[in-house]
Design goal:
Blueprint: E1 2-4, E2 11-13, E3 19-23, H1 26-32, E4 36-42, E5 45-47, E6 52-56, E7 62-66, E8 72-77, E9 80-84, E10 95-100, E11 117-118, H2 120-127
Parallel strand pairs: 3-10, 10-11
Antiparallel strand pairs: 1-2, 2-5, 3-4, 4-9, 6-7, 7-8, 8-9
């Protein structure tokens, strides 16, 4: 699957995956004004990596964006990449399969999908990060 930023300076390619994960943490909401919808990938092929800026947003994750157009590209947690779903032109068949930081969700929206929901503490335990 292929993805790219708004200006095309950065592109990513990853294995087929149609499962979205919604993150409701405060950082994702500030970064994108709502839940962040991502596809999980390990070591995607990245073209234009010299155009990526990195921001260490927590002890265990960094947020990455295009230096030129500002597009939010992905959140990196170790070797795992959570690529923003909006970067994929071919998004037919995407389905939200889980929600994390559900206890931090803003009150102004709800998702209709019935998905597994993890609290902040449950997610941090799952990825082995301290709370």
């Amino acid at each position: 699957m292929k993805a790219q930023c708004l200006c095309g300076a950065v592109s990513l390619e990853t294995a087929e995956n149609r499962e979205l994960h919604a993150c409701h943490c405060g950082k994702c909401r500030v970064w994108g004004s709502g839940a962040s919808f991502t596809l999980a990938a390990q070591s995607p092929e990245i073209t234009g990596s010299e155009h990526i800026a990195y921001y260490q947003s927590s002890e265990w994750a960094q947020r990455c964006f295009c230096k030129h157009c500002g597009t939010h590209l992905f959140v990196q947690v170790g070797n795992d990449y959570y690529i923003n779903a909006g970067l994929f032109a071919d998004n037919a068949g995407f389905e939200t399969s889980s929600q994390i930081f559900i206890d931090c969700k803003a009150p102004y929206y709800d998702l209709a999908n019935d998905t597994p929901k993890l609290t902040e503490a449950e997610f941090l335990e799952m990825v082995g990060a301290a709370g």
